[in-house]
Amino acid sequence: MTNIIYLDYHSTTPVDPRVAEKVMYYMTTAFGNANSVDHSYGDEAAKALKQARQQIAELINASPKEIIFTSGATESINLAIQGHISQQNTPAKIIVSPVEHKAVLDTCKALAKKGLAKIIWLKVNQQAQIDLEHLEKVCADGAALICVMAANNEVGTIYPIEKIGAIASSQNIPFLCDASQAVGKIPFNFQDWGITYLAISGHKFYAPKGVGALVVKKNHHLLPIIYGGGHEQGLRSGTLNVPGIAGLGEACRLRGLEMEKDESAIAQLRDTLQNLLQSNIPDLVVNGDLNNRLSGNLHISIPNIPNSAIIARIRHQLAISTGAACSSGVVAPSHVLQSMNLSENMIEGALRIGVGKFTTKAEIERTSSLIISAVNDIQQML
């Protein structure tokens, strides 16, 4: 595996070795259950949870008391949507961006199918940006919940969360923000941006898989979707993943210290790769909002060159993707690219490249060579 260049950082990230060290300590030495109140093993585990809450809160400007630990963003999203909508008069209106992650879309659709919700779809443009005027219009009619992500997991578009939160607050509509692609990569301000529920996933910013958080604004109430034990203020029962949570906290601490410098370096590597590809593949198109996108995101389309043909030629040398990992194994066009009204030809030629903090310049140069060579090979066969 060490010989394969990894550029699929939107799918998952390698665990930072410093985070892994923290996780290992709580797996093998301080391995107590945080709810064991009768001995020091439990005390140390509980102390780790308290520290992690503080570290997460400092990164996103939230209160530690607002943080509920989960297995990741998918669970956090389900808890927020189901736990909120189950308290509403039905069918409850949910305003949703059509380019959201499947965790949001499928949860809302499932509630709608049961007659518990009615989905109001927002308009998006060819850069995957939402139409704020349309958002204001539909909010004026009232709704139970707004769902808009902080950054798109495919094309990297960053959304104006502070403006969206202001619109939501002006109409007293709770706002769920899936920040799994954004936290640890861009500055975040939970307290001041009008967000009600914030979903976080550790494996998107160098923490382990299987751990995340839902941040719930003070004085907002949810009904649980998992019962048994009353953990996490009664919202998420189950023995807590102390090693993962300690790792999540450490990752947040490190991102707070290193994010600005890392993301600047990542953007430079991304731009280098983009320039190399554009210089050698004249038809190449870069998708998304180029003025508001994640530093590590490069989403491209190469017309008349099927992405599957490129992947087949490079998969044992380079790890990139044709779409979101949540839809892997599903042979269907990307709902994000369809919502952006990209042509079928552009969708079939789409590739998602994700650069991260462990990516090197040599890997970027090798990546460009591999993709250019694959494209040239395919063109010669056409």
Per-chain topology:
Elements: E1 5-6, H1 17-28, H2 40-60, E2 67-70, H3 73-85, E3 92-96, H4 102-113, E4 117-121, H5 132-140, E5 145-147, H6 161-170, E6 175-178, E7 197-201, E8 212-216, H7 242-280, E9 285-286, E10 297-301, H8 307-314, E11 318-319, H9 335-339, H10 344-348, E12 350-354, H11 361-381
Parallel strand pairs: 1-11, 3-4, 3-5, 5-6, 6-7
Antiparallel strand pairs: 2-8, 7-8, 9-10, 10-12
Helix pairs in contact: 1-7, 2-7, 3-4, 5-6, 7-11, 8-11
Characterize this entry briefly.
This protein has helices spanning 17-28, 40-60, 73-85, 102-113, 132-140, 161-170, 242-280, 307-314, 335-339, 344-348, 361-381, and strands at residues 5-6, 67-70, 92-96, 117-121, 145-147, 175-178, 197-201, 212-216, 285-286, 297-301, 318-319, 350-354. Helix content is 41%, strand content 12%.
Give keywords:
single chain, 382 residues, alpha/beta, 7-stranded mixed beta sheet, 3-stranded antiparallel beta sheet, 12% strand, globular
